[in-house]
Write a structure and sequence with these properties.
With 475 residues, the protein is of the alpha+beta class. The protein contains 19 helices and 15 strands. The chain is globular. The termini are close together. The relative contact order is 0.09.
């Protein structure tokens, strides 16, 4: 999957600069192109001596510049003149920023991707992202996607969980755990581990289950994985909040969510400790004005009497604690971390953990949400989902690559109430099937209130769109 990023956003566009002394050798400057210039010296006349493409030349400017700074310039040209050109100052690069950029340029992304992303995060702007893209960031993310898919192979887990023998043994184990029958549980554990899929476990997910030391741990590990991975067929029955929860459990959001929970937890504890010295009204105002509290928790604090309020705070603390436990149990990144601990020195699992961490870093650097979605879809080699919204403009791109029918892409663009749907289908037979259903699709779309379908079309080639913020997901 190839993420798409915005072009460089130029801030502080300043006045134009005019050369009055051109170099003897051509600089090969292209009109409307950009070029970097190092300020070699500031002359008494107010002009500056700059170095462009290895050549020094004098430049007149009204903008105060300092020696040893680097300028990013746009070539404008001067109509009717062959002896002068104009350059527009786009940005003055600080020595620190220039040093960071040189460091990024020198890094090998095949070996130092995580370091490059951390450096870019410390100097976050569009230009650092552009440097990473030029150095092959897209290709590295594609490699990461392939490594995750090949390492996890969740279809092997789905095959195990759907087999009747495994279902029967797991059901027996759950019943025996309730009864506390230890001897029978040991026999069930032995039978589960003797199943062909677990006896010859060839994926980290299956080995993680097979290495459980007791039946209760085995059941817990199975349920943990089962809550994270699911067949694509379930999408039809899933609600919007279910899909949102799936994205939140993808490993990219874990630290952010836990950080929020800790802040909420700490705040409520502080409120509880101050109950004796604050009136219920003061406590209510304190809590309602706290930005880290979500609306659900704020709604708890509506009682004006102290004792019920204290009970509500205790309930909220308990809810937060349970919520944190659920997040840890159902998060993909935590699952991989536990797999690392259980499987020991497994290089593939360690790489997988770092790949998820790289997704998280890249999401912070780029301003997009870039993550792996653990959906098991038969015959799907790879897929990506991009969602972007800006006021009343919405864009969604679904890009799939199947083993049997090849590539399929759907672009949905909605501006106000006008909807455009565009398909690219690689397989000729599938393309004809889709074409036959277009009329029905338009009729179904028009059933939505206040939506006007502009057109539904077919494209001869895949299209690319550039967005500034959004969600980018790989399955």
């Amino acid at each position: 999957m190839q993420p798409h990023l915005p072009p460089l956003n130029v801030e502080n566009v300043l006045k134009e600069q005019t050369f009055f002394k051109l170099p003897q050798v051509s600089l090969n400057l292209k009109v409307n192109g950009t070029v970097r210039a190092e300020v070699v010296d500031v002359l008494p006349s107010g002009s500056v001596l700059v170095r462009i493409n290895g050549q020094e030349l004098e430049m007149r400017t009204e903008i105060p510049l300092q020696k040893d700074t680097t300028l990013l310039l746009k070539v404008l040209g001067m109509p009717g003149s062959e002896k002068a050109i104009k350059l527009q100052l786009l940005e003055i690069l600080s020595p620190k920023k220039e040093k960071v950029e040189k460091k990024l340029q020198s890094l090998d992304l095949t070996k130092d991707l995580q370091l490059a992303l951390r450096i870019a995060l410390g100097n976050k702007d569009d230009e650092t992202v552009q440097i990473l893209l030029q150095k092959g960031l897209n290709e590295q993310l594609q490699r990461m996607n392939e490594e995750i898919i090949q390492t996890l192979k969740p279809e092997s887990f789905v095959a195990l969980s759907s087999s009747q023998d495994f279902k029967t043994l797991i059901a027996q184990a759950k019943e025996l755990i309730k009864k506390g029958a230890k001897n029978e549980l040991e026999e069930v554990l032995k039978n589960v581990k003797n199943l062909p899929q677990l006896k010859n476990a060839d994926t980290p997910l299956l080995r993680y289950i097979a290495r459980a030391n007791d039946a209760q741990t085995l059941v817990q590990r199975f349920e943990q994985i089962n809550d994270i991975f699911f067949p694509a067929e379930q999408f039809n029955s899933m609600l919007t909040q279910d899909i949102q929860q799936l994205i939140l459990n993808s490993g990219t959001f874990l630290e952010k969510r836990l950080d929020t929970l800790v802040k909420q937890f700490t705040l409520l504890q502080n409120v509880q400790e101050q109950l004796d010295v604050k009136t219920p009204k003061e406590i209510k105002e304190f809590v309602l004005n706290a930005t880290v509290l979500d609306e659900h928790i704020k709604a708890l604090f509506s009682n004006e009497t102290q004792k019920p309020l204290q009970i509500l705070i205790q309930q909220a603390l308990h809810t937060l604690h349970t919520k944190a436990q659920e997040i840890i149990t159902h998060d993909l990144k935590v699952l991989v971390a536990q797999m690392k601990e259980s499987l020991g020195d497994d290089k593939k699992v360690s790489t997988l953990y770092h790949n998820l961490q790289n997704f998280q870093l890249y999401s912070l650097v780029s301003g997009m949400v870039y993550t792996y979605l653990p959906v098991v879809w038969q015959d799907l080699k790879e897929g990506s989902l991009r969602v972007w919204a800006d006021k009343k403009h919405y864009f969604c791109q679904i890009d799939l690559d199947f083993e049997d029918i090849g590539k399929a892409q759907v672009d949905l663009l909605m501006i106000h109430n006008s909807l455009k749907v565009e398909f690219f289908i690689e397989d000729a037979v599938f393309r004809e099937i889709l074409r036959d259903g277009v009329t029905q699709l338009i009729e179904d779309l028009e059933d939505f209130e206040d939506v006007f379908v502009t057109f539904v079309s077919h494209s001869g080639e895949k299209t690319r769109y550039t967005t500034t913020d959004g969600i980018n997901i790989t399955v």
